[in-house]
Design brief:
Blueprint (H helix, E strand, L loop, with lengths): L3 H19 L15 E2 L10 E2 L9 H11 L2 H6 L4 H9 L2 H11 L3 H12 L14 E2 L4 E2 H6 L7 H12 L4 H14 L5 H19 L2 H10 L1 H12 L9 H6 L7 H9 L7 H17 L1 H11 L6 H4 L11 H9 L4 E2 L4 H4 L1 E3 L19 E2 L1 H18 L6 E5 L4 H10 L15 E5 L5 H16 L3 E5 L3 E6 L16
Parallel strand pairs: 6-8
Antiparallel strand pairs: 1-2, 3-4, 5-7, 8-9, 9-11, 10-11
Helix pairs in contact: 1-2, 1-16, 2-15, 4-6, 4-15, 5-6, 5-10, 6-15, 8-9, 10-11, 11-12, 12-14, 15-16, 20-22
Length: 488
């Protein structure tokens, strides 16, 4: 077994490789041209246009897809019943049936297996709160779809009654008998038949979209909804299928607005479904080929309420233990102070930032800065939120930035939300944004920026009662030209 630090360092190294790949080539044509995105200059300021280094380009499609899978993986680790590895073990038990169903439908067995991971976590008897009329079984087929589209035998009422009796079964033998009876009247609870039906759906959807990828997207979004999104993005039919990465990353509140509005009006995470499929596929791959690495990643993914320790593992990330160490970082130019011109930055420093400085005998200014990459990201978020809101007066209030361990210990005494363990604030890579907005439009714009950056695997964030806590990847170094906005 490799030492823990060595394995974690290896995981971090993979993330560095990812950004190099993203900024590299690829090669992919598209039937719809993509224009590069630029970060808007501050209102009334004349400056050289700055191209967003993470603006979507068709030639880099695969790298965007890899980032999206990594950025959306946290929920799989955090919410999979029993954990990601245990869920992978349950799902893998159905691999032979999955391969048969995938072969019959001529779709990817790995993607179909990932679908099972997402839909039921490998539990063939799962029901949604809607009961037997809703989604049920290994692949979570809705009763109406199963009956009218997939030709399944589904007696909703008998299935409901058997499910109720099954929940009250007093012996394993009785439970097995009732489960067998339910499988006969509701084929969604028969794993083999459920997989075959899902394969039929995917085959139908692939014929409609001429794309296996879009068929899998439609499994959660619905064929009609996806058709509407694609048509809105392209302005009609295209000669060849669009790649979903382009539609997803090239739609925003300022570009392809109608497609973006349709994607996010769904409100059920349909827009991210493909990325979670890819994340599940990677978990299953690691389960088979490198379970030790899967365990290490799961440890990092579940260390906090976000994926921040995947971006900066505590075992390998420099943290400031004392005010003296923090001051040395300032002296060495390793931290950047917040600018005071809200018009230029789109950010406001909360007057309470560094309020406990006197408790540790230090000036507040010691606790009002960030690593250059994190400061650049804060500026990027401020600028992009302003652009998405269409409001030149949009300003986000930053309540907390860098700390040291001594300051953190003082904070714990008065703030029950403050962690008593490793805090990302002590690395200079994290900041908090007050959840108080100028308007609902600004709030929605901020959320859209957070979602995009998460899918780019550039940030990990969590919603706290008073603020949004944001941890920034070192890969945000590509944004450091924006630092000229913090100068007076």
């Amino acid at each position: 077994m490799l030492p823990r630090i060595a394995v974690i360092a290896g995981v971090a190294a993979l993330a560095v490789v990812a950004v190099v790949a993203l900024l590299g080539g690829g090669g992919q044509d598209t039937p719809v041209a993509v224009k590069p995105d630029y970060v808007a200059p501050p209102p009334g300021v004349r400056s050289k246009p700055f191209k967003d280094p993470f603006s979507y380009e068709p030639r880099r499609r695969k790298q965007f897809e890899q980032r999206a899978a990594a950025g959306n993986a946290h929920v799989l680790y955090a919410l999979s019943p029993g954990g990601a590895r245990e869920t992978a073990q349950r799902v893998a038990a159905f691999r032979p049936a999955i391969e048969r169903a995938a072969g019959a439908a001529d779709v990817s067995a790995d993607e179909l297996e990932a679908l099972v991971f997402l839909e039921s976590a490998g539990r063939p008897s799962v029901l949604t709160p809607a009961g037997t009329e809703g989604a049920a079984g290994l692949t979570q087929i809705v009763a109406e779809t199963g009956i009218n589209l997939l030709g399944m035998r589904i007696d909703v009422e008998r299935s409901r009654k058997l499910s109720k009796r099954l929940s009250r079964a007093r012996s394993p033998e009785a439970a097995r008998r009732l489960a067998a009876e339910r499988r006969k009247v509701d084929e969604r609870f028969d794993p083999v038949k459920a997989l075959a039906a899902t394969g039929r759906y995917l085959k139908l959807a692939e014929l409609r979209f001429d794309s296996e990828e879009l068929a899998f997207v439609s499994y959660h979004m619905g064929i009609g909804n996806l058709e509407s999104v694609m048509a809105a993005y392209a302005g009609g039919e295209t000669d060849e299928p669009l790649r979903y990465a382009q539609v997803y990353f090239d739609s925003s509140p300022t570009s392809h607005k109608t497609a973006y509005a349709k994607l996010y009006a769904l409100g059920d995470d349909s827009s991210n479904y493909l990325w979670k499929l890819h994340a599940a596929e990677e978990i299953l791959r690691l389960y088979r080929s490198d379970p030790e690495q899967l365990d290490q990643i799961e440890t990092l993914q579940t260390a906090k309420n976000s994926a921040e320790e995947v971006l900066h593992p505590s075992a390998t990330t420099e943290a400031f233990a004392t005010p003296g160490q923090l001051q040395s970082a300032w002296d060495a130019g390793e931290l950047v102070a917040f600018g005071v011109d809200e018009r230029r930055t789109g950010l406001r420093v909360d007057s309470r930032m560094g309020a406990l400085a006197r408790k540790v005998g230090q000036p507040r200014t010691l606790y009002r800065g960030l690593r250059p990459e994190a400061m650049a990201m804060a500026l990027f978020i401020g600028a992009q939120t302003r652009a998405a809101a269409g409001d030149p007066r949009s300003v986000l209030t930053v309540t907390s930035t860098v700390r040291d361990d001594r300051y953190q210990r003082e904070l714990v005494k008065t703030n029950f939300q403050a962690t008593r363990n490793f805090s990302m604030h002590t690395t200079g890579f994290a900041f908090d944004v007050l959840r108080r907005y100028r308007s609902p439009k600004q709030a929605r714009a901020f959320q859209s920026v957070l979602d995009r950056l998460t899918s780019l695997n550039l940030i990990a964030w969590v919603r706290e009662p008073a603020a949004i806590h944001i941890a920034v990847s070192s890969e945000a170094a590509a944004l450091t030209p924006l630092l000229d906005r913090v100068t007076p």
